[in-house]
Write a structure and sequence with these properties.
The chain has one domain: 3-Layer(aba) Sandwich (Rossmann fold), CATH 3.40.50. The protein contains eight helices and seven strands, in the order αααβαβαββαβααββ. It starts with 17 loop residues before the first helix and ends in a 7-residue tail after the last strand. Helices cover about 30% and strands about 25% of the residues. By secondary structure, the protein is of the alpha/beta class. Strands 3-2-1-4-5-7-6 form a seven-stranded mixed sheet.
Length: about 230
């Protein structure tokens, strides 16, 4: 994960601010004490999208404990995962060993440290990388820069109306976003999808409620021949 709050599971007890919840120390403690926070299966929307894709170079930004990166590697892709938490990256490396796949995992702050290799990836995945506006724009610009012409940026996140209308996820409006924000961030790409999607979440009380997410799929225009 990266600065901000990255969550697909039921909401956590709020800290003083989104800044406190997104520090390296906070993420390290969360991963060290809660096991595989979101399990080892891939995100359901990503699995729907990526099942059957031909092998390609994939970047998972804010990969966390590696569930998406490792699953993508099992599908034959060459995967790189980036996250700021050393604890998460070590867990991700163990998960890759458990699944007998190779993934290049690196510890880096996507916003402040990581520099995108231009056009190096055919698919860039951002799964619940919830960032405040300035950091979000930086991370999304880096994602767009790192995707090759003809390649795809695939993003799933908590929608900005999830606090009032949905369930679970970060409780800080600063790190949530909507269709308008994503359209602006990825304005140089061709938007194939930029829309709200819904996800059932079972709370600690056993009741299933609906979370509001946003799904974006965008492609970088291919370089014209000749």
């Amino acid at each position: 994960m990266q600065p901000g709050n990255h969550a697909e599971a039921p909401a956590q007890a709020p800290t003083a601010s989104y800044r406190d919840s997104g520090t390296v120390e906070a993420w390290n403690e969360r991963y060290a004490t809660r096991g595989m926070v979101w399990g080892t299966d891939p995100n359901r929307f990503l699995a729907d999208y990526a099942t059957g894709l031909t092998p390609r170079r994939v970047l998972d930004l804010g990969c966390g404990q590696g569930r998406n990166a490792v699953w993508l590697a099992t599908q034959g892709h060459r995967v790189t995962g980036i996250d700021l938490s050393p604890v998460a990256i070590e867990q991700a490396r163990r998960l890759a060993v458990d699944h007998a796949v190779e993934v290049l995992f690196e510890v880096a702050n996507v916003v402040e440290e990581w520099m995108p290799p231009p056009g190096a990836f055919d698919l860039v995945v951002l799964s619940y990388l919830q960032l405040a506006p300035h950091d979000r724009r930086v991370a999304h610009a880096k994602a767009a820069e790192s995707v090759a012409p003809g390649g795809t940026v695939w993003l799933i996140a908590h929608h900005s109306d999830n606090i009032t209308d949905g369930f679970a996820g970060p409780q800080y409006p600063e790190v949530l976003f909507d269709e308008k924000a994503l359209a602006a961030d990825f304005g140089e790409l061709e938007l194939l999808r930029n829309e709200k999607v819904f996800r059932d979440v079972e709370g600690e009380d056993g009741v299933v409620r609906v979370a509001h997410d946003i799904l974006l799929v965008a492609t970088k225009p291919a370089v014209p021949d000749g």
